[in-house]
Amino acid sequence: MSYLFICISCISLPAQKEITLTEPGTGLRIIVINKDYPLLKILLPGQSTSERGIEVEFPEHVTGLNGRTNTYEHLYLVSQGTSNKRTLPLWKVEGNTVKYETTLNNDIKMIAIASLEDDGVRYTYRFINNSTIDYTNFQAVTCVKLYSAFSDTLLQRTYVHHTNGYELLASETPGRLNMPLNKWLPCRYMISYTWPVPAKLVQKDEDSITRYNKSRKADKPFIATVSHNKKWIAATYTSQTGNLWTNPERSCQHADPSISLKIGNTKNLELKTYIFQGELDQLLSHIDREASKKHLE
User: How far apart are CA 272 and CA 51, in angstroms?
Assistant: First the structure.
């Protein structure tokens, strides 16, 4: 196990102090670029801090199905800004992790932990439900936005895995390569994992966003993008999810797990973004090791 150089000690941090972690073996870096509305930047070794790199909304929103009203409730939504009902995050650095705590709606505590590992970043959300409401389909939706080395607006380097191997996520929409961008965007491209494949594969909703669905399920719960120079892979994985999807405009990766969070429960949500130099086949080895570890827990 390698040790990390950390630019600040393991203490609660004032809001104005920059938080940076560096993995000494690989040179991967995490920088917290917004503390009040948690946003991380991940940089490759040698990548300038002026580049956007990979930006992670940590999370983009926290949502659950309220068991009392039977409606979906946003406990946190980054776009709501100061309208969110929560305490401001209190940040710490501990070892190879950067973490913060906040309380949502006065009664659900969230501890968000980003762990810098030699092959990527692991995100763990711990929720303590001190409310009087049971929630199902409870999620901390984490948007992993790929810029700089990985941007892939036409989904020419973004892959999923089927039983017969890798395939481009958007392989069933070859016309995208010749579409004017204003016809292709805005859109979402999705693939089912545990959920049924929708009967209608292409649909334009009231929000004017076209949603494409792949006609076959993925057999592994991750979405992977190869860098422009084909040397690096960024892939977001979780052990269980309904589907995987991207917004090609920002090449984001979504692999969002969900839990049932009943009154008094303490539960975790976890996902990971792998970032390493290598081939797609090597990614499967990382995924299989992770799955084996989860099976033993």
Answer: 22
Nearest to 119 by CA among 5, 252, 233: 233
| pLDDT tens digits along 223-243 | 999 999 999 999 999 999 999
Structure tokens at 125: 């959300």
- Enumerate the β-bridge partners of residue 42: 30, 54
Alpha-carbon distance of 234 to 276, in angstroms, equals 7
Whether the ω angle into residue 198 lies within 30 degrees of 0, i.e. cis, is no
Could you tell me where the DSSP H helices lie in 50-130? none
pLDDT in tens, 173-224: 999 999 999 999 999 999 999 999 999 999 998 889 999 999 999 999 999 9
Among all chains, which residue has been given the structure tokens 């009967």?
199
* Pairing state between β 108-117 and 210-213: unpaired
Contact 256, 246 (CB under 8 A): no
Distances 165 to 107, 109, 152, 168, 263 between C-alpha atoms, Å = 45, 41, 21, 10, 42
Interatomic CA distance for residues 240 and 292, integer angstroms = 13
List Cβ<8 Å contacts ≥24 apart for 67-73.
67/133, 67/134, 67/135, 67/136, 68/133, 68/134, 72/137, 73/135
What kind and span of H or E run contains 277? strand 266-277
pTM across the whole model: 0.92
DSSP one-letter string for 6-72: ESS-SSB--TTS-EEEE-TTT--EEEEEETTTTEEEEE-TT--TTS--EEEEEEEEEEEEETTT-SE
**Contact between residue 21 and residue 116 where contact means Cβ atoms under 8 Å apart:** yes
